[in-house]
């Protein structure tokens, strides 16, 4: 028989979350900056392209608002969903999760810290895209402050889904594929006005969490926005965020303790 | 915060207490699908005890089941059968306690690759529950101890293999743990870095009685740093003793290595007679024999016409690799 040694204390949730967030954020300097440019250029390119078919002014106001809002939220989908799915997929496939799994940290701190960092990476890209979009389509800048809510809430929803995809996929390529598919869906269904789409496609669009971020932002380009509808859209993002991040934390525990 | 420990049993402590006790550990994997599905035993009924304060080694070729055993000890993998006790805690029932008792250095660094050395060490310390000032202080101390200061602000991904390994080793030293589990810690390191690793381990053993479980397939390292070693082959422990005790099993035999310049001169009767007994590895022949016969062979080869064809030769006392082969190890995966 042996005398039991007192185990060291567990790291607490918020300090651990903060440490993961800070470490992940520092990675941007090394590896993420080129990808952030890609995310922003993709959205700017789509807006320039759409400027060729959507006129400015009141005639096509709804279309212009959807193009700018959709392109802005696409930056979030690219980074938080696609890149995060790839990151966790690679970490799982290469055994990198062992490092975190052999440290006494709550699963939520690793998932939330990483997701928060990826959501933060999207801030410059979304601001630039929204600003350029407003200039290009002559939309009002007045309510752009709503990005301060749209980015974290749609970031939470999309990064939770991205993390869960990366952690649940049993192969790295599947994680990459899921991330790409999620981003493509946000791209194809997010940047065009829903009134131009067939009913079935609109149902599919309504199933995408990114749609609610797009709608919330699009509504605020109106002179007198319907703030109740904006709040409802953001509430959907928040609810999906809570669910998807909880799923991601569960997926992390499952992935970390498997062979 | 949970700082509760399992209550210690009231029994009096024996002279050398166990750090880890593994009993009847078995882990099987399924490979392939459908009709081709096979069950492979990664670990088969492994039992061993590691004493507190010793450097205990798991030696065996790649694929012997060493890493599977370690992953179970660290709570990463659940065994199919068997018991694992680490410092008085049941790790099979409470795998979460492993991370609070031990620090693990795995073979992969992908979680840390894009961080700078300083941030990788500091973040790991924070995740071991240290406060910000304590983590920063330990970071500075460990970087100085391992002479990593000049690399502190470079990302791990941009370092050489050995430097990256040393930076990962640094992360296991912060937030001090009574047990260090190191899976091939010195792979790719130069001798200076390797000495820094073992000096750091020795300091912790002297100061706090730290126990080390070392996974290696490097025979020289095993012989020089280990107090005791378990030889693992095909998922089983085929021997467990001190390196000296194990080598006593093959006492009496020596190993003669002959390296030929080009093709061995098989037209010479002496060389032709030796050929069937030699283990051939490229231009190197290895022959095991009694010391008297070996001396005689060296005299004949170096004094005769075979010497002209010889590039190098050496006569060595038995190594742990000889023990491994004598015990029935079937793989030539050990590194000398």
From TrEMBL, chain A:
Sorted UniProt keywords: Membrane, Transmembrane, Transmembrane helix
Transmembrane domains' residue ranges: 35-55, 67-88, 100-121, 141-167, 174-192, 227-252
ABC-2 type transporter transmembrane domain mapped to chain residues: 29-218
Subcellular compartments: Membrane
Keyword Transmembrane recorded: yes
Domain of life: Bacteria
Record membrane topology: Multi-pass membrane protein
Pfam families in the cross-refs: ABC2_membrane (PF01061)
InterPro entries linked to this entry: ABC2_TM, Nod_factor_ABC_transporter
Protein name as it appears in the record: ABC transporter permease
Lineage: Bacteria, Bacillati, Actinomycetota, Actinomycetes, Kitasatosporales
TrEMBL record, chain B:
Compartments in which it is found: Cell membrane
Superkingdom classification of source: Bacteria
Record-annotated ABC transporter domain positions: 20-259
Keyword Transport: yes
Membrane topology label: Peripheral membrane protein
Major localisation: membrane
PROSITE patterns assigned: ABC_TRANSPORTER_1, ABC_TRANSPORTER_2
GO molecular function: ATP binding
Matches recorded under InterPro entries: AAA+_ATPase, ABC_transporter-like_ATP-bd, ABC_transporter-like_CS, ABC_transporter_ATP-binding, P-loop_NTPase
Keywords annotated in UniProt: Antibiotic resistance, ATP-binding, Nucleotide-binding, Transport
Name under which the protein is recorded: ABC transporter ATP-binding protein
Species whose genome carries this gene: Streptacidiphilus cavernicola
């Amino acid at each position: 028989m042996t005398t039991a040694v007192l185990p060291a204390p567990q790291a607490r949730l918020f300090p651990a979350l903060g440490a993961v967030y800070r470490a992940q954020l520092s990675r941007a300097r090394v590896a993420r900056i080129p990808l952030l440019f890609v995310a922003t250029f993709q959205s700017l390119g789509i807006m320039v392209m759409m400027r060729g078919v959507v006129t400015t002014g009141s005639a096509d106001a709804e279309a212009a608002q959807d193009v700018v809002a959709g392109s802005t939220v696409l930056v979030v989908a690219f980074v938080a969903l696609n890149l995060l799915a790839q990151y966790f997929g690679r970490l799982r496939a290469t055994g990198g999760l062992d490092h975190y799994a052999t440290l006494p940290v709550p699963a939520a701190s690793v998932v939330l810290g990483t997701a928060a960092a990826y959501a933060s990476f999207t801030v410059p890209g979304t601001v630039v895209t929204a600003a350029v979009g407003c200039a290009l389509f002559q939309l009002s800048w007045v309510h752009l402050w709503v990005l301060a809510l749209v980015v974290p809430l749609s970031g939470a929803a999309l990064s939770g889904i991205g993390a869960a995809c990366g952690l649940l996929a049993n192969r790295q390529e599947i994680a990459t594929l899921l991330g790409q598919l999620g981003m493509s869906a946000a791209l194809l269904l997010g940047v065009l006005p829903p009134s131009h789409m067939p009913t079935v496609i609109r149902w599919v669009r309504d199933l995408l969490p990114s749609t609610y971020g797009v709608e919330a932002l699009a509504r605020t380009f109106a002179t007198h926005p319907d703030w109740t509808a904006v709040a409802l859209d953001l509430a959907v993002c928040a609810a999906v965020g809570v669910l998807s991040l909880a799923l991601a934390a569960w997926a992390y525990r499952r992935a970390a303790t498997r062979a | 915060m949970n700082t509760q420990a399992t209550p210690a049993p009231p029994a009096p402590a024996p002279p050398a207490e166990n750090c880890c006790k593994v009993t009847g550990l078995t882990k099987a994997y399924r490979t392939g699908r459908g009709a081709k599905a096979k069950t492979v035993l990664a670990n088969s009924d492994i039992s061993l005890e590691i004493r507190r304060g010793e450097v205990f080694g798991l030696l065996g070729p790649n694929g012997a089941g060493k890493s599977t055993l370690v992953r179970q000890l660290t709570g990463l993998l659940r065994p199919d059968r068997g018991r694992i006790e680490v410092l008085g805690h049941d790790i099979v029932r409470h795998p979460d306690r492993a991370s609070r008792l031990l620090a693990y250095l795995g073979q992969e660094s992908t979680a840390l690759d894009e961080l700078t050395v300083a941030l990788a060490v500091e973040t790991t310390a924070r995740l071991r529950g240290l406060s910000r000032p304590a983590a920063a202080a330990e970071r500075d101390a460990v970087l100085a101890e391992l002479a990593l200061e000049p690399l502190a602000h470079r990302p791990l991904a941009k370092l050489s293999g050995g430097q990256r390994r040393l930076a990962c080793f640094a992360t296991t030293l912060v937030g001090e743990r009574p047990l260090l589990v190191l899976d091939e810690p010195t792979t790719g390191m130069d001798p200076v870095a390797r000495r820094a690793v073992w000096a750091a381990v020795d300091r912790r053993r002297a100061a706090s009685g730290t126990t080390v479980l070392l996974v290696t397939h490097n025979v020289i390292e095993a012989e020089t740093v280990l107090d005791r070693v378990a030889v693992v082959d095909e998922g089983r422990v085929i021997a467990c003793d001190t390196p000296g005790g194990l080598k006593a099993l093959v006492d009496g035999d020596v190993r003669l290595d002959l390296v030929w310049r080009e093709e061995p001169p098989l037209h010479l009767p002496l060389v032709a007679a030796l050929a069937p007994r030699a283990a051939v590895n490229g231009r190197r022949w290895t022959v095991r024999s009694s010391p008297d016969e070996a001396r005689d062979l060296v005299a004949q080869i170096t004094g005769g016409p075979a010497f002209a064809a010889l590039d190098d030769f050496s006569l060595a006392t038995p190594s742990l690799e000889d023990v491994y082969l004598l015990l029935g190890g079937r793989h030539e995966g050990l590194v000398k």
